[in-house]
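Appendix B. Extra example for self-study. Work through it before the problem class; the solution is given directly after the inputs so you can check yourself.
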Amino acid sequence: MATNPQRPRAAYVCNACGAAQPKWSGQCADCGAWNTLEEVARPPAGQSRAGGRGGGFAAAGPTESVIHTLADLRPEERVRTSTGIGELDRVLGGGLVIGSVVLLGGDPGIGKSTLLLQACESLGAEHPVLYVSGEESPQQIGLRARRLGVVGAGIRLLAETCVERVLALAERDPPRVMVVDSIQTLYTDLLQSAPGSVSQVRETAAQLVRFAKRADTAVFLVGHVTKEGALAGPRVLEHMVDTVLYFEGESGGTFRLVRAIKNRFGAVNELGVFAMGDRGLREVKNPSAIFLARHDQPVPGSLVMVTREGTRPLLIEVQALVDESPLANPRRVALGLDQNRLSMLLAVLHRHGGVAMFNQDVFVNVVGGVRIGETAADLPVLLAVLSSYRDRPLPLDLVAFGEVGLSGEVRPVPNGPDRLREAVKHGIRRAIVPAGNVPKEGVEGLDILAVKTLAAAIDGV
Ligand code: TYD
Ligand code: MG
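Solution. Structure tokens for the complete assembly:
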């Protein structure tokens, strides 16, 4: 990074305009923004970091730079190692890549430490593992390990919060896998600010990332997501790490979902499903079974959809409740779905399906706390809403998926045949899906209604 030699080396940088300032102040002298100055790490005078390179705030590489020719590179296949937990391997893209940095985020108490301790058990059998805890004492971790049935033969523990000391110890005998629990408890001597502040989190993580690449160690960074907002949380690290996993769902319930938000070594949006029990997290190998809430009788407002999270299709129940509203502005509440999309779909339903809901409250919920980001939920959501509005139940053995466009057309979604086959596996016999998603030869055991418009789908139920 080139810094202007004329300017004094600053210890504060404005996060709005990037201007460097030697002193903290409430307002940036360059762009005038308030409360944007942030402390950044400055190497001690006369001592440059990163093997004799010139200063700068974030010296990147430990060794001399070399220019490669892309065609001549013979990249070795990345070494992957199993964590011993199938669902965790799945979200990692097929196992843990040695030398990669994985951020595991989630609400406090959702199970981050539990999951990683369980993974360490199996990783420790093959590789040296170092578990760095800034939150719990070795005794507390020992108690938890006993509860989980973790023997921990290959696991070394370190209770330490200074990143320089952590790295000094790790360098002596580099582990193959290192867990840092949590990044918010670590601090660096280079900065004065409190542990957990944005600058501390960023700088300590940067040091750990450099260590991971230098020592070829897989590093898990645990990060607490704060309710207040993204800024102080681990989100500031997303661009620095190779893989970002977040726990989804409520910590009150039994099920825990881990989703890959970013993955340089695998499919994004991949979902791992776990159940929390009294002996830690257990994998749920057939998650469709738990998201299909079983009713004995068909009920209005309920429909099963097939969503595809990462590389795996999942059957999930969508529920809707439509009720006359006493309010001037009726409510539209979407849990597990995008609220704006629901409003848009209701407008399409009015304009192209002839059903008006401007005096109705509409609530839609995706069972199991799953968040659906894909448009394949459009058609099932509208059919569930309509079912509740008309108080007419849909058959229990019916599924639907498909995107609904603004002109009332039903568009195909990726991997249609794959979704249909998954539905058949779970005893589904009927499907309403986009015409473009139906294979020519049909699907055995499935009565398919292929639709091109919303109106055709409404006529079909
Ligand atoms: P933990 O892994 O400590 O959460 P995090 O590291 O994300 O803050 O999980 C703690 C929660 O999990 C706590 O509420 C207790 C519960 N739990 C179980 O239900 N069973 C178990 O076997 C363990 C170890 C924890
Ligand atoms: Mg924890």
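Self-check: Residues 112-113, 135, 181 surround magnesium ion (ligand 2) (CB under 6 Å). If your reasoning did not lead you there, revisit section 3.
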